[in-house]
Amino acid sequence: MTDVTPRALDARLAARLTPAVAMRAVSPATRDDASDAAISAVAVRTEQLDAMYGGVAAVRSATLTFTPGRVTAIIGPSGCGKSTLLRCINRLHETQPAARVRGAVFVDGRDVYAAGTDVVAVRRSIGFVAQRPTPFPSMNIRENVVAGLRVAGIRVSGTELEDRVEAVLQRTGLWDEVSDRLDSDPMSLSGGQQQRLCLARALAPEPRVLLLDEPTAALDPGSTQRIEELVYLLRGEVTTIIVTHNMQQAARVSDITAFMLEGELIEQAPTRVLFTAPSDARTELYLTGRFG
Length: 292
Ligand SMILES: Nc1ncnc2c1ncn2[C@@H]1O[C@H](COP(=O)(O)OP(=O)(O)O)[C@@H](O)[C@H]1O
Ligand SMILES: [Mg+2]
Prior knowledge:
Layout: H1 6-16, H2 19-26, H3 28-36, E1 44-53, E2 56-66, E3 71-75, H4 82-89, E4 99-107, E5 110-111, H5 119-125, E6 126-129, H6 141-151, H7 158-171, H8 175-178, H9 191-203, E7 209-213, H10 221-233, E8 239-243, H11 247-253, E9 256-261, E10 264-270, H12 271-276, H13 281-287
Parallel strand pairs: 3-8, 3-9, 6-7, 7-8
Antiparallel strand pairs: 1-2, 1-4, 4-5, 9-10
């Protein structure tokens, strides 16, 4: 059974993060600073959101608020609708056959489902990283990052372009590993490096919202830790929503956790509160490994 007492969580958090990050993690002052730094991050809110595949509702009447510049984890058993909910936020859900959405999703105060919305612009403005690394195989490493800028309509060139490529590769910890082979095939990278490249591609246009769907599910523990550190360090700048079925990961990287079950939001609370004093008995059952 997983020990979810605050002391056990703190011990795990400290053990899994590098010293610099662990210091941030346990310093309340640093956490407060993050909100002051939330200059460009925006709020996301779903309201009475239903998402269907044909006649089957995968998400039911979900109302969630995602705090600007914070990391919110969505946890819950496989098939409870986490990915579907995430894909409603950037209007990817409707790209699947017979998929429908009812309700609203507000990003920066605007309903992305309002009539007349530029769907392509919505998808471009929100960073998205999927479960399996998906570098563009026909492009080299550098071009993968540039593609992130181009897709968002950013047309910088020359030194400015090279500076942006380097900055985002630095930020995702890849620069030292790939700077001497930017023209190589991204498929020559390890799985963890490929996923950090995908994160770099998503972050290149400086999105204000970042959606991560089990970004470490296919990675080894070392690569997982690096991604978790990156996610942790994004707070303040990006409103991050991370789907994970790994409760320890949610505890390590998120400020707020939402627990879903059978398409419904059961509860959403500051991570520490949800893990130590959940208000719904079903959350407690899930956290203590008694179902799911
Ligand atoms: N493309 C699809 N077509 C039909 N049903 C789907 C599709 N994708 C997911 N579902 C169903 O929707 C429900 C929620 O799935 P999903 O959002 O992927 O859950 P999670 O990410 O929590 O594992 C599940 O019952 C799943 O079988
Ligand atoms: Mg999923």
